[in-house]
Amino acid sequence: MSELPNCPECQSEYTYEDGNLFVCPVCAHEWTLESEGEQEDSETVYKDSNGNVLQDGDTVTVIKDLKVKGTSSVVKRGTKVKNIRLIDGDHDIDCKIDGLGAMQLKSKFVKKI
């Protein structure tokens, strides 16, 4: 019997094969050997509304009025946001906006300057 790989999520040694997938009974993570190699090689690429690649420290402008959740404030179209930080998640830009403070934006609502 061949040695099965440990789970890439929780490092559990109790993995098993289910067809062409490996399954971890501890955390319920499923993967294939091909996807394991792809995850290591690929780096997430963040793009703005025009398809330009974004990087940490870029300056962007907001392309539409955005309501700020939990307040009556609005981030107006054309607002310049300096020194962005890219993060994983649904809202993938972490930034500070003058007058509003720290917040997160979606990259599809900004364009790179």
Please state the CA-atom Rg, rounded to the nearest Å: 20 Å
CATH topology of the largest domain: SH3 type barrels
Number of helices: 1
Strand content: 25-35%
Q: Helix and strand succession? A: EEEHEEEEEEEE
In CATH, the architecture of the largest domain is Roll
What is the CATH first-level class name of the largest domain?
Answer: Mainly Beta
The percentage helix is under 10%
Can you give a write-up of this model?
InterPro entries: YjdM, YjdM_C, YjdM_N. Pfam families: YjdM, Zn_Ribbon_YjdM. By secondary structure, the protein is mainly beta. The protein has two domains: 36 residues, N-terminal domain of TfIIb, CATH 2.20.25.10; 54 residues, SH3 type barrels (Roll). The protein is 8% helix and 28% strand. A three-stranded antiparallel β-sheet has the order 1-2-3. A three-stranded antiparallel β-sheet has the order 7-4-11, with no helix packed on it. A three-stranded antiparallel β-sheet has the order 8-9-10, with no helix packed on it. The radius of gyration is 20 Å and the shape is elongated. The N and C termini lie far apart (57 Å).
